[in-house]
Every structure is written in structure tokens, then in C-alpha cells.
Task: inverse folding
């Protein structure tokens, strides 16, 4: 793509068109700096200045300026100037041709074309006297040389356009004196650059410090063909205008930098406008006179004033006079930030009242001078409401803590006091001055042990303090602590944040009640023990007359003399049966009394468990023969031995079997023995019946003294209700447990799980209800 660059405008001759020079835009960018140098150089010598005026200015101005410059040039230089111009053209073309010939791989066609072009240029330089033929000859030479160089060097300059312009334009001599220097300088400049770049000469070298070297090199080559005149002209031009050229280049660079900075400022301004416009805070900017120059949408909502009404006005004109905010703005304009807080406003969009914190800040330029101020209005309504809610909640919490009777203290993660209520201080009045927020617990402990050294345990103070603190940290549950005449319940609990809550509760009354209850219990136990001891002592006196009654009734019932009538024998049978029943009741009561009194000795021995159940079954066979119930023994297939008190275990089994026979009208009572599933050294004795069963809600009550499964059973089946109580008590003595499974109408199974007993010298403790007993 090419761009058209006008280089000669104005009314050159009647009927002529304005010629244009076409330059490939692809060359425009890399040649921008060299072209600027040429353009500035053209300003500082007369022919070049004329060409520059022709190129740079508008049509009318260019024509006028070109005419004036041409007249001045002819008056100053005359024919000598014209000759210099023609020689410069020929020398430039010839020098460029020589540079092209210096290439290592110059093709013959380019050599021939270049030679022809150089020859034509030389002829034109010698013979031209302002004729059209001379112009055509020079144009043809330029065309041939340029085409040859473009083939060899790759130049993108459209030399054909130059040829067209020169050969088709009716040039007068005066016109040629303006146009041809421009063509020559343009040609020399671009061809020289193309050649030097082709041979690897950097542009920075060419157009900075290396300009003199390049000029000297060009002048030397020109001198070979044109002589010392051209050399002197080139050197003079370089020396005379070098500083001006570089000054103009520096101005151009500054202009480019200014353009870049301007673009950056525009981008920054766009970004800032976007940020300010989208801010959730109200933003206003004031100039140095205090007039508003920025007013964002949020400020419109806060103030209810649109930007169109606020811009360009003073703050007081928008809001009215406000001493605090006026002073804050003036402070910011003088360079000192200022704040105005707790400003009440009503949002014009939502209609909700709120609160603002307003900051006035100085606006500074790059040199730090104040050029205005900006205001940021931050809506703190939500923060204020949250703070008020927190304050209210905190106050309610403090009031609740203060209202409780217990002493309350809260410590942070560093074990420093956060809050202490009055009750806590009342428990530690001697060190109340230490119970303030921020005091470490170690200081509180030190102060307390200093006042009460008896709690140090005789240890040095520092050691006692360390122990005190360590015990508190380790104490996660509760502890009762006697403080003088009162008892305190100490409770310390860690919090989720690493702190600790301490509670102090006065339990003196509870301790007093506890002591009274303990004393009453001890008295009751003493009375119960006295009763048991009395019954134990009375066992002989109660049994002796009863045994006599039973014995004599049996003797008389035998009717050895045959004097008794059948009804008398029936009466005696009733006396004997009731006497035996009464004896059984008395024996149960006396056994229980002896157990409670701790007067049952323990004899530990190793027994054969299979033999134990067989013996029990034989003892009760006579009792079962009187009813429609069979007693069955199931022994273990292997030998089972157990270390225990055989007499007491036998008594437990007899009681359980007897109880089963009592409540089973027909069916079976089975006694078995086996290993415990979970404990290989334990033995399980089981007594199962097919009797009436026990309701589920009575399964635990049947083991209480004087209790039976149903109140009616005592009337139907008799008994004291002590059998199971004695069995469980004896089981406790021999390190055994009793469990029961039962279903009403199906039957019951009692299991006695016995653990091996260990012989020990001290009596075993037995517990019946709330009574602590010992078996010895």
C-alpha cells in the first residue's frame, strides 16, 4: 500500500497537474528518523528550504513561498547556484551507482543499467541548460539507476513515479531549480540509507555520531567523480547545520514523548473516571478555588444533588454553610487532610437514613504542590448499626454476668482478665484490686498466696505460684475448695478461642445439708445394724421353742399308742406344717440379719461345679415329689472347677430352685452349669422353670427385700419375699452376679455368673441397699 506525498504544488504552469511522489508505506516507518533528518536538513539550505516549503505547506502558501524563495535564490546565487545543483544531482546518482557496484554479487544486467544511468546523468549535468531534453535525460538516468538498485538492493522506492513526474511535467527552468534539488536530496538520502543498511551499517550510527563518517565517506566517493567542490559543499552543509538538525530531532522526540504521555494520561483519566464512577463511596473533587469538578453517581444519591447542578459550584453553594465541613475543605486545600464523622444523611434513592464518615484530602500535582482537594464520603450506616448491636449485646451480657450469684471471671488466651463480676470479687476481697481487665492470672495467684501463705503447702512462693497455675490449667472439671469457714465449688472451663471461664459457687449450705444427710444415714445404719444384731442374738431363743413345738407335734402325730382319732392327726399335721413354715420364715429373716450384721464367715475353696448342681437337685427332690414338677440337672460335658465359698453358692442355688418350685405348678425346673461366653475362667449356673413368669416391669423389684412379683403371690404362695434378696446379697459376697429373663405364662431363667474368688486376709465388703456390710 502506498501513500501519496505531494512534493510540488501550486500553479507550476498552465494546464499542468499537481505531481505526486509515491512512497511505499512499508518504508515509511523504518525511514521515519532518517527522513526527518533530511526534512530538517532541507530547511537549512536554500534549495532544500524551497523544496520543504513546497512539500510541507498548503497549495496557496506553497506557491507563494516557492516564488519568493526562487527570486531570492536567483539574486543570491545566479548561474553558480544552478550549476551546483546540477552537479550535486549527477554526483549523487554516480556515487550511489558506485556503492551499488561495490556489492560482491552484482548482476551484469544491473551493472549495465547503472552504467547507462550514470552516463546519462553526466551528459545531463554537462549539457543541460534548462531544456526539456535535459530534464528527460536526467529523469531517465534516475529511473535506470533506481531500477537497477531496486533489483540489486531491494529498495521499495517507486523510482518509476519520479521518472513519470520529471518527463511529463512541462518544467521551466525556475521550476526545475525548486523541484530537482528536492528529488536529488530525496534520492540520495533514501538510496544511501538502503545501501548502507544492506551492508549492515546501523541507523543509529548513520544518523548520530556516525553521520560525519558517513558524510565523509560519501564525499570521498563523490570527489573521485566530481572533484573537491562537491566535497566542500557536503562538509560545509554537515558542519553548518548539524547542531540545528539534532536540535530539531530532539524537539521531535519530545513531541513524540508528549504525545505518548498525553495518550497515557487519557487512558489514566478514563480508568479513574470508571473507578470513581463505580465507587460505592461518594467522591467529589474540588479545584484550587474550591469549585467542584468531579461529582460521582454515589455522591448524587447521598446528597440528592445531580452532577449537572454541582459541577463548577462552591461547596457552600451546593450544601449551604457548614462550619465543620467548610473548615475541613479549606484544610485539605491548604495541604492538611481533615475528617468529619457521624454526618447524618438520607439516601435519595432508597429513602433510608444513614451515617457518613467524610474525608477531605489534598490533591497534589507531580511536583507535590496542592492543586485542589477531593472528598470521600463513606457510608458507615451498617457499621454503626452493627457496632450498636454489639454494644447492646455486650451490655446485656455484662448485666447477666453481674446478676448471677456465682462468681464469674473470663480470661483471654494469654490468661489475662477480660471480665470479672462483683460476686467473684466478693470471694477474693483481699486481692480485689488485682481483679481488673488485663491482669495476668499468675499475678492474681501470687497476690492470693502472699495474703494466704497457708495455701503454699510450705513451698517457696514462686514454686507455689507455678503449682497453682499448673493445677488450674490441668483442672478441666470441678473441685471443692474450703476457704475459711465456707466451701467453694471451683469450675474452670476452656473456651473455643483458647481462653478460660472460671466460676466460683458458694456451696457451704449444700455441704451442711450433705453433712446432715450423712449423719442421718449413719444413724439409720446404726439402728439397722442394732436391729440385725438383736435378731442374730435372738436366733437361738426364737428357734428353740419353735423346734420343740414342731418336734412334739410330730411325736404325737405318730400315734404310737393308737389313741388319736383321724381328725386329731389332721390337726397335728396342720400344726407341724405351719410350724415348719414359720421356722423357714424365721430362718430367712435370721439369715438376712446375720448377713447385714456381718456375722457370716467366708470360706473359700475349690469346688466341682457339676457335683454342686447334682447335690442341689438331690436335696430338693423330696420337695418336688409332692408336686407335678420334675427337677432336672444338666451338667457340663467337661470338668468345671471354681474357687468360691461353696456353702453360700449352694444356698443361692437352693433359694433359686426352691423359688422356681414354689411358682411352678407343673412342668420342669432345670439346673445347669456352663462356661461364661466372654470370660473363660467364669462359670454360669442357670435355673429355669416353666412357671407363672414375672412381668417385665417387676424384674428388678423382685430382688428388693420383702418384695414379690405380685402382691397377690404372697397370699397364694406364701413366703417373706426375702429369698431373692438373700440370693443377690450372697452373690455379692462370693463375687457373683444374678440376672433374670422371664415372660409371663412361659417361665423364668435365673443365671448366676461366678468369678473366681481370691483368698484375702481382710473381710469382704457387702452392700445391701444403702447399708455397707463386711463378711468375716
Result:
Amino acid at each position: 500500500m502506498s501513500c501519496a506525498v505531494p512534493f510540488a504544488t501550486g500553479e507550476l504552469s498552465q494546464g499542468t497537474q499537481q505531481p505526486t511522489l509515491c512512497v511505499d508505506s512499508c518504508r515509511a516507518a523504518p525511514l521515519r528518523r532518517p527522513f526527518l533528518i533530511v526534512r530538517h536538513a532541507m530547511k537549512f539550505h536554500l534549495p532544500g528550504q524551497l523544496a520543504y516549503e513546497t512539500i510541507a505547506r498548503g497549495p496557496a502558501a506553497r506557491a507563494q513561498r516557492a516564488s519568493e524563495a526562487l527570486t531570492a535564490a536567483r539574486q543570491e546565487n545566479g548561474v553558480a547556484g544552478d550549476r551546483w545543483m546540477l552537479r550535486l544531482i549527477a554526483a549523487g546518482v554516480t556515487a550511489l551507482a558506485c556503492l551499488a557496484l561495490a556489492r560482491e554479487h552484482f548482476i551484469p544486467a544491473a551493472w549495465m543499467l547503472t552504467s547507462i544511468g550514470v552516463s546519462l546523468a553526466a551528459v545531463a549535468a554537462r549539457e543541460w541548460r534548462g531544456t526539456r531534453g535535459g530534464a528527460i535525460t536526467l529523469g531517465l538516468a534516475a529511473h535506470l539507476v533506481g531500477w537497477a538498485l531496486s533489483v540489486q538492493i531491494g529498495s521499495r522506492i517507486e523510482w518509476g513515479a519520479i521518472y513519470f513526474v520529471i518527463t511529463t511535467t512541462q518544467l521551466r527552468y525556475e521550476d526545475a531549480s525548486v523541484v530537482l534539488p528536492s528529488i536529488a536530496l530525496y534520492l540520495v538520502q533514501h538510496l544511501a540509507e538502503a545501501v548502507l543498511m544492506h551492508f549492515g551499517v546501523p541507523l543509529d550510527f548513520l544518523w548520530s555520531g556516525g553521520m560525519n563518517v558517513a558524510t565523509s565517506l560519501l564525499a570521498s566517493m563523490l570527489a573521485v567523480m566530481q572533484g573537491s567542490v562537491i566535497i566542500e559543499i557536503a562538509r560545509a552543509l554537515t558542519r553548518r547545520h548539524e547542531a540545528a538538525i539534532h536540535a530539531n530531532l530532539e524537539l521531535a522526540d519530545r513531541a513524540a514523548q508528549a504525545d505518548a504521555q498525553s495518550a497515557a494520561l487519557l487512558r489514566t483519566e478514563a480508568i479513574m473516571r470508571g473507578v470513581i464512577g463505580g465507587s460505592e463511596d461518594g467522591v467529589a473533587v474540588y479545584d484550587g478555588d474550591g469549585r467542584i469538578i468531579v461529582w460521582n453517581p454515589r455522591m448524587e444519591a447521598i446528597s440528592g444533588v445531580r452532577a449537572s447542578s454541582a459541577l463548577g459550584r462552591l461547596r457552600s453553594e451546593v450544601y449551604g454553610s457548614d462550619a465543620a465541613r467548610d473548615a475541613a475543605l479549606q484544610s485539605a486545600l491548604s495541604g492538611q487532610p481533615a475528617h468529619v464523622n457521624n454526618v447524618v444523611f438520607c439516601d435519595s434513592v432508597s429513602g433510608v437514613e444513614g451515617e457518613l464518615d467524610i474525608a477531605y484530602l489534598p490533591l497534589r500535582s507531580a511536583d507535590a504542590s496542592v492543586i485542589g482537594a477531593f472528598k470521600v464520603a463513606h457510608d458507615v450506616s451498617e457499621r454503626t448499626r452493627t457496632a450498636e448491636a454489639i454494644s447492646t449485646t455486650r451490655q446485656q451480657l455484662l448485666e447477666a454476668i453481674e446478676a448471677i450469684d456465682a462468681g464469674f471471671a473470663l480470661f483471654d488466651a494469654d490468661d489475662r482478665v477480660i471480665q470479672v463480676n462483683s460476686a467473684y470479687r466478693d470471694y477474693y476481697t483481699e486481692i480485689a484490686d488485682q481483679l481488673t481487665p488485663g491482669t495476668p492470672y499468675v499475678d492474681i495467684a501470687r497476690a492470693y498466696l502472699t495474703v494466704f501463705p497457708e495455701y503454699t503447702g510450705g513451698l517457696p512462693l514462686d514454686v507455689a505460684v507455678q503449682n497453682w497455675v499448673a493445677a488450674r490449667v490441668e483442672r478441666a472439671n470441678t473441685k471443692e475448695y474450703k476457704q475459711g469457714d465456707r466451701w467453694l465449688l471451683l469450675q474452670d472451663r476452656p473456651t473455643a478461642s483458647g481462653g478460660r471461664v472460671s466460676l466460683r459457687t458458694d456451696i457451704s449450705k449444700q455441704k451442711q445439708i450433705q453433712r446432715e444427710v450423712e449423719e442421718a444415714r449413719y444413724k439409720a445404719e446404726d439402728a439397722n445394724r442394732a436391729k440385725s444384731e438383736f435378731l442374730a442374738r435372738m436366733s437361738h431363743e426364737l428357734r428353740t421353742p419353735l423346734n420343740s413345738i414342731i418336734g412334739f407335734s410330730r411325736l404325737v402325730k405318730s400315734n404310737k399308742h393308737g389313741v388319736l382319732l383321724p381328725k386329731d392327726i389332721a390337726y397335728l399335721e396342720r400344726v407341724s406344717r405351719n410350724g415348719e413354715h414359720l421356722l423357714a420364715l424365721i430362718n430367712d429373716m435370721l439369715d438376712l440379719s446375720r448377713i447385714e450384721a456381718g456375722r457370716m464367715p467366708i470360706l473359700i475353696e475349690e469346688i466341682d461345679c457339676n457335683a454342686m448342681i447334682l447335690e442341689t437337685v438331690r436335696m430338693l427332690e423330696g420337695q418336688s415329689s409332692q408336686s407335678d414338677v420334675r427337677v432336672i440337672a444338666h451338667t457340663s460335658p467337661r470338668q468345671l472347677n471354681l474357687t468360691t465359698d461353696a456353702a453360700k453358692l449352694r444356698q443361692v442355688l437352693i433359694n433359686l430352685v426352691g423359688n422356681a418350685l414354689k411358682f411352678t405348678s407343673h412342668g420342669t425346673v432345670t439346673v445347669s452349669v456352663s462356661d461364661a461366653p466372654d470370660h473363660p475362667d467364669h462359670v454360669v449356673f442357670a435355673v429355669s422353670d416353666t412357671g407363672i413368669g414375672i412381668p417385665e416391669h417387676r424384674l428388678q423389684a423382685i430382688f428388693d427385700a420383702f418384695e414379690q412379683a405380685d402382691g397377690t403371690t404372697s397370699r397364694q404362695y406364701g413366703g417373706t419375699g426375702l429369698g431373692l434378696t438373700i440370693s443377690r446379697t450372697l452373690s455379692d459376697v462370693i463375687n457373683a452376679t444374678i440376672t433374670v429373663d422371664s415372660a409371663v405364662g412361659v417361665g423364668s431363667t435365673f443365671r448366676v455368673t461366678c468369678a473366681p474368688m481370691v483368698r484375702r486376709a481382710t473381710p469382704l465388703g457387702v452392700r445391701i441397699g444403702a447399708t455397707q456390710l463386711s463378711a468375716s
